[in-house]
């Protein structure tokens, strides 16, 4: 046990002395959360909108003015019919279309339910949510001003938001689970594979192999510090997501942490697998980036929704570990579901770790004979 | 049974290629045994088998009485190993390196402390004990690596081209350390391709194409091949068959 501790201590020396790595380790989640979080949610100034006004009345005019003077919206197009809306969205510029039905002003003045329809391009879910929220607030604010407080409201304006392209808003808040998956994969898999490859490169691995340390001790000693650091990192990202970006944590925090540990373990087993193949740090790094990072970014549903991928890519996405982790994190944090709904994904992660560990051990054995 | 190394027809095949071919030799306890051969002659494969890193294809070998097939764990306890790459961690200090290697060999806390102090004093490293190894001159690193390889008082220490890339004076100093260790009873199993170093060994074996072509004291070898240096012996044995 003392031998093992001596080994783990040495690993911490390596990590803590390497300032650049530490900076990447803890700077990356900050930067990514900031980038993905704020860049997406703050993209709201001067959003391009279109107008479909069947009413041409006083109130539709005033609400439109109110919307445009808020600073959030910029009118780029007047649409003439419902058919025109789809074409407008397809061109991809316009994020939101405000529709005033015929007789809107008339309905409103005569105390009936007046309706405004908001159609948002939900292929960028975060933007869509924010835009409809802003617009709804402005319209409701207008209605409230017209009905002085205390008096019975004479008329209401019903705002009816509709998401186009992605009606269920799947993928909302996906970036924090995505960033988590990415950072944990990077830290765990890339860094372990690189640090093991480094020992091979400098020849210290030979000495370790000749020493009484067993192979599992060497591997586990390599992995343990990264397990701890990655877990810290995972907690940091969750905290940033919840406190900075206001992502709800509806499910069990304990379950979330356990699943995070499981995913870290999986990432570490991938790192070890890569290190059994790669003999140099450079190879290890490229292997990690190519095998893990790229597919994780593009195929896990992190940036591009899996549902809208072509069929072959959808099939490939099934072997991307991050896909399952992302849906677990989303499930726990946003939907508030428990293990009862997530056991399939959890089993997949466990199974993958088992397979990767088994292949690594076999690779190590065949090296010796 | 007081032989440090005993092999009998030890062989390693990789597919059709025979890396070491039925090598048979003995090394006595406390001996300085030179293991010579051109690159690719099979030295490294042989050493890896003796250290328990590689399973032999056939033949026998015992290290300090332990069998290389079944008792690799015991073998690891009684051998030390140093390669030409010195195997120190450059981002650790001198003291941390010593403690790390002592630690993985299971030295107690008190032993570790005493050993580090002893090594640092012996090597005159007091002023740099808490400096990172990366800043040390090559010769210092080499001597430190050797001391570290001996930290658990192994019966046998395997030195795989330990003096690669080091100037002759430093090499001479290093051999003084080797002699001291041998005087204390440690068996030294050393590979080298510097022929002047071969002269320092008690006995020398020369491998060519996986086989041991000659094995004797340097003086005896020179006499039987009728040359006046080990380099001459080596040239006669290896000429035409190696790429050196």
TrEMBL record, chain A:
Q: Give Gene Ontology CC terms.
A: ATP-binding cassette (ABC) transporter complex
Q: Per the database record, which ranges form the ABC transmembrane type-2 domain?
A: 116-367
MF annotations from Gene Ontology: ABC-type transporter activity
Is Transmembrane helix there in the keyword field?
A: yes
Statement: the UniProt record of this protein carries the keyword Mitochondrion: no
Ranges that cross the membrane: 21-40, 172-196, 223-247, 253-275, 282-304, 346-364
Q: Where in the cell is it found?
A: Cell membrane
Alphabetical keyword list:
Cell membrane, Membrane, Transmembrane, Transmembrane helix, Transport
**Pfam families annotated for this entry?**
ABC2_membrane_3 (PF12698)
InterPro entries hit by this protein = ABC-2_transporter_component (IPR051449), ABC2_TM (IPR013525), ABC2_TM_bact-type (IPR047817), ABC_2_transport (IPR000412)
Membrane topology type, per the record? Multi-pass membrane protein
Q: Which family does it belong to?
A: Belongs to the ABC-2 integral membrane protein family.
Q: What is this protein called?
A: Transport permease protein
Annotated organism of origin = Fibrisoma montanum
UniProtKB/TrEMBL annotation, chain B:
Coiled coil: which residue ranges?
none
Q: Name one GO molecular function term.
A: ATP hydrolysis activity
InterPro entries in the record, alphabetically?
AAA+_ATPase, ABC_transporter-like_ATP-bd, P-loop_NTPase
Stretches that traverse the bilayer: none
The record's section on Pfam families has: ABC_tran
Task: Enumerate the SUPFAM superfamilies for this protein.
Answer: P-loop containing nucleoside triphosphate hydrolases
Cite the ABC transporter domain residue spans from the record.
5-234
Q: Which PROSITE patterns match?
A: ABC_TRANSPORTER_2 (PS50893)
Keywords, A to Z, come to:
ATP-binding, Nucleotide-binding
Q: Does this UniProt record's set of keywords contain Ribonucleoprotein? A: no
Q: What is this protein called?
A: ABC transporter ATP-binding protein
Organism encoding this protein: Fibrisoma montanum
């Amino acid at each position: 046990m003392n031998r093992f501790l001596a080994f783990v201590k040495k690993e911490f020396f390596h990590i803590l002395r390497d300032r650049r790595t530490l900076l990447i380790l803890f700077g990356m989640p900050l930067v990514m959360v900031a980038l993905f979080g704020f860049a997406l949610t703050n993209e709201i100034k001067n959003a391009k909108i279109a107008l479909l006004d069947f009413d041409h009345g006083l109130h539709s005019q005033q609400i439109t003015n109110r919307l445009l003077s808020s600073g959030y919206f910029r009118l780029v197009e007047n649409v003439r019919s419902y058919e025109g809306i789809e074409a407008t969205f397809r061109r991809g510029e316009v994020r939101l279309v405000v529709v005033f039905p015929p007789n809107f002003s008339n309905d409103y003045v005569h105390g009936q339910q007046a309706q405004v329809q908001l159609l948002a391009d939900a292929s960028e879910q975060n933007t869509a949510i924010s835009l409809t929220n802003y617009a709804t607030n402005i319209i409701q604010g207008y209605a409230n001003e017209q009905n002085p407080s205390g008096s019975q409201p004479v008329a209401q304006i019903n705002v009816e938001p509709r998401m186009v392209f992605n009606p269920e808003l799947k993928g909302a808040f996906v970036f924090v689970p995505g960033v988590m998956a990415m950072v944990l994969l990077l830290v765990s898999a890339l860094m372990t594979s690189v640090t093991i490859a480094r020992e091979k490169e400098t020849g210290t691995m030979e000495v370790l192999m000749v020493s009484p340390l067993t192979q599992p001790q060497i591997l586990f000693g390599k992995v343990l510090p990264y397990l701890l650091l990655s877990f810290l990192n995972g907690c940091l990202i969750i905290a940033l997501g919840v406190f900075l970006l206001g992502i709800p944590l509806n499910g069990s925090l304990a379950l979330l942490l356990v699943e995070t540990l499981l995913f870290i373990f999986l990432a570490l087993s991938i790192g070890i697998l890569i290190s059994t193949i790669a003999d140099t740090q450079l190879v290890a790094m490229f292997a990690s980036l190519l095998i893990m990072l790229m597919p994780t970014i593009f195929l896990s549903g992190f940036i591009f929704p899996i549902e809208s991928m072509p069929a072959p890519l959808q099939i490939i996405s099934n072997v991307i570990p991050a896909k399952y982790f992302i849906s677990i994190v989303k499930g726990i944090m946003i939907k508030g579901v428990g293990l009862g709904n997530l056991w399939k994904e959890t089993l997949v992660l466990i199974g993958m770790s088992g397979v990767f560990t088994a292949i690594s051990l076999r690779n190590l054995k065949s090296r010796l004979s | 049974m007081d032989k440090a190394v005993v092999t009998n027809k030890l062989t390693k095949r990789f597919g059709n290629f025979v890396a070491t071919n039925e090598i048979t030799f003995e090394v006595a306890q406390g001996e300085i045994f030179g293991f010579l051969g051109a690159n690719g002659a099979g030295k490294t494969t042989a050493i890896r088998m003796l250290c328990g890193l590689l399973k032999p294809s056939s033949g026998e070998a015992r290290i300090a009485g332990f069998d290389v097939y079944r008792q690799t764990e015991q073998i690891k306890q009684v051998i030390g190993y140093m390669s030409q790459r010195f195997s120190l961690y450059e981002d650790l200090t001198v003291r941390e390196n010593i403690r790390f290697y002592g630690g993985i060999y299971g030295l107690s806390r008190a032993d570790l402390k005493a050993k580090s102090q002893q090594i640092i004093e012996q090597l005159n490293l007091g002023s740099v004990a808490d400096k990172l190894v990366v800043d040390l001159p090559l010769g210092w690193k080499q001597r430190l690596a050797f001391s570290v390889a001996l930290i658990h008082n192994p019966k046998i220490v395997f030195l795989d081209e330990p003096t690669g890339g080091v100037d002759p004076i430093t090499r001479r100093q290093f051999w003084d350390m080797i002699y001291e260790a041998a005087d204390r009873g440690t068996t030294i199993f050393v590979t080298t391709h510097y022929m002047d170093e071969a002269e320092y060994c008690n006995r020398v074996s020369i491998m060519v194409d996986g086989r041991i072509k000659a094995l004797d004291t340097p003086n005896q070898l020179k006499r039987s091949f009728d040359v006046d240096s080990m380099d001459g012996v080596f040239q006669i044995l290896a000429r035409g068959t190696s790429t050196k």
